[in-house]
């Protein structure tokens, strides 16, 4: 059962906000009041979950304080952060806050330009850094999970929330097909309600298919709940086989095509904080698939990478390097592009790198 936000969770957010009063000055009162309402968990603005964690609240407070004093487009960025209707915009804003706060605290504001126009591109990179008679273009990219998977998760969460509203005594388990869409949720919930009214059919293990135009979109099963309390959960996501490294590579190349200028020193920043892929898949996307080559004569095994990464693609030459981080920008990894049209010198790499540099 998806519980409502609990009073103690609200108190934690209140306490964290009291510890960082600058957040009360930055966020509008109506927005904070809406965060502190007891309501369904799935309806909560994503900011609530950041503010319920003391360390994340502290970081947000520090980053916003930096940007409020130095970043000219601060309030436009805040509007994106608090927009409750666009989660993609929220996560994009969180990434920008994390990264921009580093640049605006490390370099003079006069050396930075937000969203500079680029001739011949449909989009704009997030930042231009002009320093030491050089220009660097920086694009910040929140690499969230696969869009289809996010949509599946959202659909199934909404189904759980709606069925949870029904007063019933069963353990209800359901699964959806890839063809199930947001607009099918209401009909599927009504279908489930109609079955609950026919309790004589609801024997453990009986599975009921939800059909639309003779095509199966979902199924539902009812089991006796030992506690006597109703509960609902999804059994399986639709089966999908994803190659994360290929997905990451494709999205990076799309970013280059739309927002990275050619013939300039450019850096792409990947925020992996809200994705389930690992560092190895990022490496494969950038430098090519990791593999082994066996010498048929000597049987010697050699570790190598296939030449199919971002750096090997014709568009990849427009990137001087890629920064990858998860959660904390100070723990970023810097990936050098050895095939870049505009390569970075060692001193220049130092402007962007933190602890680990890979080539």
Overview of the molecule:
This protein is of the alpha/beta class and 359 residues long. Helices cover 39% and strands 20% of the residues. The protein has twelve helices and 13 strands. It has helices at residues 7-19, 21-26, 29-35, 47-51, 54-70, 74-82, 87-106, 147-164, 185-196, 244-259, 279-287, 346-352; strands at residues 112-114, 127-131, 134-142, 170-176, 207-212, 215-224, 231-234, 265-271, 290-294, 301-305, 321-325, 333-336, 356-358. The strands form three sheets. Strands 1-2-3-8-11-12-13 form a seven-stranded mixed β-sheet. Strands 5-6-4-7 form a four-stranded mixed β-sheet, with helices on one face. A hairpin with a 6-residue loop joins strand 9 (290-294) and strand 10. Helix 5 crosses helix 7, helix 6 (74-82) runs antiparallel to helix 7 and helix 8 (147-164) runs parallel beside helix 9. The longest helix has 20 residues, at 87-106. The mean pLDDT is 89.
Q: Give the tally of β-strands.
A: 13
Low-confidence stretches: none
Helix amount, in percent?
25-40%
Shape call? globular
Strand-residue fraction?
Answer: 15-25%
Strand order of the largest sheet: 1-2-3-8-11-12-13
Structural class: alpha/beta
Mean pLDDT, to the nearest integer, reads 89
What are the secondary-structure elements, in order, as H or E?
A: HHHHHHHEEEHEHEEEHEHEEEEHE
